[in-house]
Design a protein that fits this description.
6-stranded mixed beta sheet; 14 helices; Nucleotidyltransferase, domain 5; 19% strand; binds adenosine-5'-diphosphate; single chain; alpha/beta
Length: 396
């Protein structure tokens, strides 16, 4: 079956057409600046990248443009839309309602709408994408795959905040966790690569991209993760602060004469390694600056790696042990120095880095020594493939 995977943001839409039998990507691309002007980037497998500057006034036009490229006689990869057997949508927040991927019936879509309060920037955009596909591909089954679903196995001791309990029961204030599709895919893949049953493994997945989170996967189930009520909690990220003393929010609001919303905007968009360094949120820029002697860039890298190492320590304690530590996403897959620095804290667990094996980018590989008690590995994530697999599993 050919599955169209859609990841819809407020002004962007990423897509991949995947053949579920061969698991090959037939075409992929990105619509940007939707509602502003519009740019569509389209790459068929084995072909070159095409950029179209046609206007994209809304998401329906964006989906329609994607479909016309996929079926284009020259650069298309399918003869007609009838070849698309199903659509898989990435959805950010499934609240407590969705512990699994789901067929997008009218009822399910209404429930996702009800979760919008928990993810006001993301879920409404996801629903717009769903509606646009419904309009243009009526009758084609659609599946929602949630970033939060994998973490619904967390026990109350991991998901409850130490707040008055009624905030949880009345408003759903609890830890949900995100990047679940990636944590699930990477942990399963790690077990496959090692030739072991995931039920017998304690795995810590470090998803280190511009957004970053760590997950403790015990026997194939998420038992804790570093993001919480929103993706702001936990690690130091590209531009997000991660965890901090909440009293700072009021203090800065009063010192800088800002509203709470303005301070939260700073915590989301102007903090993290960008905020500390004043250089960039991109680790390549930070490392170049640190090499030239920029102390703040060096501090930003140190804060990032130190906090990742501490979370690995938390989760080793949470699971009473760890067998495998996986690195994934932009930084985890590509940043040799960051991986080495993180693992330099973890010798006490019995994890020994093999520096030569660690000299790798974007490839599945064990990077610990053969006698290391804990295996460290690089496992590139593939959220689109995971969404296509979930979609096929539900549509059949
Ligand atoms: P997201 O999906 O959260 O936007 P990605 O997983 O694509 O993020 O990660 C993007 C980040 O990965 C970049 O901001 C950069 O810091 C880092 N990155 C990408 N390539 C490299 C590289 N070769 N070396 C170091 N860091 C890299």
């Amino acid at each position: 079956m050919k599955v169209l995977v859609i990841n819809c943001g407020s002004s962007s839409l990423k897509f991949q057409l995947i053949d579920s039998e061969t698991e090959q990507v037939l075409a992929k691309g990105l619509c940007e600046r939707i509602g502003i002007d519009g740019r569509l980037t389209y790459s068929p497998a084995g072909g070159s990248k095409h950029v179209f500057e046609d206007p994209l006034p809304n998401h329906t036009v964006a989906v329609s443009s994607v479909l016309s490229k996929l079926t284009d006689p020259e650069i298309g990869v399918i003869g007609s839309l009838a070849e698309i057997g199903a659509v898989g949508h990435r959805i950010v927040h499934g609240g407590e309602k969705f512990a699994k991927s789901t067929l997008l019936t009218e009822e399910a879509i209404k429930e996702i709408e009800a979760c919008s309060e928990l993810a006001p920037l993301h879920n409404p955009a996801n629903i717009i994408g769903i509606r646009a596909c419904q309009e243009l591909m009526p009758g084609v089954p659609m599946v929602g795959v949630f970033d939060t679903a994998f973490h619904q196995t967390m026990p109350p001791k991991a998901f409850l905040y130490s707040l008055p309990y009624e905030y949880y029961t009345k408003y759903g204030v609890r830890r949900y966790g995100f990047h679940g599709t990636s944590h699930s895919y990477v942990s399963k893949r790690a077990a496959e690569i090692l030739g072991k049953d995931i039920k017998d493994l304690k795995i810590i997945v470090c998803h280190l991209g511009n957004g970053a989170s760590i997950c403790a996967v015990d026997g194939g189930k998420s038992v804790d993760t570093s993001m919480g009520f929103t993706p702001l909690e936990g690690l130091t990220m590209g531009t997000r602060s991660g965890g901090l003393d909440p009293a700072i929010i009021e203090y800065i609001a009063s010192k800088e004469n800002m509203s709470l919303a303005e301070v939260l905007n700073v915590l989301n968009k102007k903090s993290g390694v960008q905020g500390i360094s004043g250089v960039s949120s991109d680790f390549r820029d930070l490392e170049a600056a640190a090499k030239e002697g920029n102390e703040r860039a060096k501090d930003a890298l140190d804060v990032f790696t130190y906090r990742v190492a501490k979370f690995v320590g938390y989760y080793a304690a949470a699971m009473n042990g760890v067998d495998v530590i996986c690195f994934t996403a932009g930084i985890g897959e590509n940043d040799i120095a960051v991986r080495a620095e993180i693992l330099s804290y973890l010798g006490f667990l019995g994890c020994k880095l093999d520096p030569e094996a660690n000299n790798v980018r974007g490839e599945e590989r064990i990077i610990s020594t053969p006698d290391s008690k804990v295996i460290a590995m690089v496992v590139p994530t593939n959220e689109e493939l995971a969404i296509a697999r979930e979609t096929v599993a539900i549509v059949g």
